[in-house]
Each structure stands twice: as structure tokens, then as C-alpha cells.
Specification:
Oligomer: single chain
Number of domains: 1
Structural class: alpha/beta
Strand content: 15-25%
Distance between the termini: 30 Å
CATH architecture: Alpha-Beta Complex
Radius of gyration: 17 Å
């Protein structure tokens, strides 16, 4: 199948400083197919919402913006974005400049060629691109996910997951916070989806710079890996 339109879903919470640059990079990258951008503001309090309201007045036709009245978490923002998407492919893009939209063509190639049903962008195929403590935590969670799901991924927690819209919408999703990553991975594995990883670039930021996922989320992920593989 030849896909014709990519919907880039950007969940946003308090990213006023980085969001304009992310949007610029997403719009500038050439991918050979039509592209739309769906931004979901999850009740930001740092001026992000006001920035988006100003941008919306002059937004190009391929940009759509939705607003949550209260903070519900990344997973909930993604579900809102998925429902609004009009493309036949969906890709998640964080708003914090850690991931580079210049990698979109690399992500698209395996799915357009028929090599993969789903593509994950791995931060670790070309070596460690983050501090040791984050690297070890991500690898441990990925190893556990692989063991229970029968996969051989190097980066289950990656933001860059490229999934056909029809497949994604056929999967019931429940996680409101950062549980989306283990949930979608487990449920794709249960469907027998062919997941291919490609290397991507990654520029990690610290908690001081605004990184939101923490150790409590990492511990929660262990339970979510087991829950979504066996019970939900």
C-alpha cells in the first residue's frame, strides 16, 4: 500500500519556548507525501495556550489545534489528536526539540516500501545518545517489554512511532500519561504487527530544562508493560 498523507500529532504541555521551533522544523521537512500537523494543548499554564491561539489566527491550512480544558496527560492528548487526524499515517512528535523532524523520510521509507507495518525510531541503534542513567533505564524497560511481548526492539520508549491510521484506531487505548509507549507496543505485538526500527537523532534535555518524565513514571511503566500484555 502506498500511503498518501502523514498526520503529525504534537501533544503539548508547557512548551512555549520550544514549540515554535518544532513547528518550523516539522513544516520545513520534505517527505514526498501530503502532511498535516495536529497540535493538542493539554491545558498549558506557561503561555503556550496563548501562543497557540495567536498562531491559530494565521495558521496554514494543514495545521489544526485542539485544547484540553484541564490537564489530562500525554496519552489523553494523543487520543484527542488521533481522533482529529485525517492522514492515513500517524506519527507522534514531542514539542521539546529532543527529536528531529529531519528523520521523517528515514521513518517513512520502510513502511512505504512494504518492509514494515509499523516503524519505531530508535535512539540507540547507533549507540548511546543520552546520559547513562536514562540510557540504562530505557534499556531495562525495553528488555522487559521485549521479554513479555516477544519482540526484539532496542527502544520501546521512543517518541517516534509511525503507525497506519486504520491500525491505530482499531486498538483501544487507555493510558492518560506516559503509559502510551508500553501500551501501544504491547497491543501491536498482540496484533502480530511487523515493527521495524530505524536509527534517529536525539538531543536529550534535563529535568531543569523541562523534561517531564521521571522515575515515578519509569516504575509505573513496569506495571503497564505487564498489564497491557496480559490483562487489558
Amino acid at each position: 500500500m502506498r500511503y498518501r498523507k502523514l498526520s503529525v500529532i504534537i501533544p503539548v504541555y508547557n512548551e512555549r519556548e520550544t514549540l515554535p521551533k518544532v513547528l518550523q522544523r516539522v513544516q520545513e521537512v520534505e517527505i514526498g507525501i501530503e502532511k498535516e500537523v495536529v497540535i493538542v494543548d493539554d491545558a498549558s499554564t506557561d503561555g503556550t495556550r496563548e501562543l497557540l491561539q495567536e498562531l491559530e489566527k494565521a495558521a496554514p491550512p494543514n495545521v489544526r489545534i485542539a485544547y484540553h480544558p484541564r490537564n489530562r496527560g500525554k496519552g489523553a492528548a494523543l487520543r484527542t489528536g488521533f481522533a482529529l487526524a485525517s492522514g492515513d499515517l500517524i506519527l507522534v512528535q514531542d514539542a521539546d526539540l529532543e527529536y528531529d523532524p529531519a528523520d521523517y523520510p528515514r521513518l517513512l521509507e520502510p513502511i512505504q516500501s512494504g518492509e514494515a507495518e509499523v516503524v519505531y525510531g530508535s535512539r540507540f541503534l547507533t549507540g548511546r545518545q543520552t546520559v547513562w542513567i536514562h540510557y540504562l533505564g530505557n534499556r531495562a524497560l525495553t528488555l522487559l517489554s521485549n521479554c513479555v511481548n516477544g519482540l526484539r526492539l532496542t527502544d520501546m520508549e521512543t517518541c517516534y512511532k509511525l503507525i497506519p491510521t486504520e491500525l491505530l484506531r482499531s486498538i483501544p487505548l487507555r493510558s492518560d500519561r506516559f503509559g502510551f509507549e508500553p501500551e501501544i507496543t504491547a497491543k501491536l505485538a498482540r496484533r502480530g504487527a511487523r515493527i521495524v526500527e530505524v536509527p534517529i537523532r536525539y538531543q536529550p534535555r534535563s529535568w531543569k530544562q523541562g523534561k517531564k518524565i521521571g522515575w515515578k513514571d519509569a516504575f509505573a511503566t513496569v506495571g503497564q508493560i505487564l498489564r497491557y500484555r496480559f490483562w487489558d
